[in-house]
Amino acid sequence: MSSKILIIGACGQIGTELTAKLREIHGTNNVIASDINTRALDPVNAGPFEIIDAKNFNAIKDCCINHNIDTIYLMAALLSATGEKYPMEAWDLNMNSLFHVLNLAKAGTIKKIFWPSSIAVFGPTTPRENTPQHTICEPTTVYGITKQVGERWCEYYFNKYGVDVRSIRYPGIISHKAMPGGGTTDYAVEIYHEAIKKGEYNCFLSENTSLPMMFMDDAIKATVDLMQAPPEHLSIRSAYNLSALSFTPKQIFESIKTQMPDFTIKYKPDFRQAIADSWPSSINDSVARKDWNWQHSYDLDALTTEMLKQLKEKYKNES
Ligand code: AKB
Question: Which whole-number Å values give the CA distances from 266 to 204, 207, 214, 263, in the listed order?
């Protein structure tokens, strides 16, 4: 029997593309997209959609019962930059939404959960290069604290109650469909949009800030692969390190410049620089590669080619 899926936060950057992929795999009517509003139209128009506030336990529970949901992808969260502006809101949304789905699984209403963690679980005391799966995690952002605590709770619910919850520490995700919102790695998406729209970009991180990044297609593949992996193959029930590539603003600028020679950049670091400085510059994901054969496909130049091609098309159609 096919899985019946609820995606919470389906209109966000990852949710939009995850919804499309899961509908392709499981059938449109087996994937209920939900969000607090309808800011991205693809998930709303292309299949079943419900307005759900991720903080509202009864709204999630009712939807699960009405649609016989067995699997939830909880994609709603306040990210690192927004979390610093609204710490209590970030704590409230990021933690309570997780407890809602963990408790639905504990009660037997649903069977399986995907919940995204992040490289934000790491902090300034973490080894910065080739950061291991098991290492010091002393995050300095509210978002990072919620992800680190969330990981502990996921592992606890797995060990204590047998809840099948799976998670990935996403790096910065680069995509051309829905915009990211409120993250520190958002510059690596904005830069492509501004290159096409204006031919110049004011970067909020300094030129040599190296961060782990990934193209959306790879992130979606990882999410699907992890959820399809046999449970006995999974040695991590907190969250898997996941890596594809690392680059600096200068390197992404140079990659764009090979295809747009007139493109210019200025560096004006703001409060997000301190967040980026507290995160690793590269990640060791050997456990994910061993447990569920994770492999990435896109390097920086392949990613730049795809982003520029898609965004040129998008802005041509909009003008
Ligand atoms: C952010 O920048 O906050 C996110 C993340 C790395 O989790 N993109």
Answer: 9, 9, 23, 11
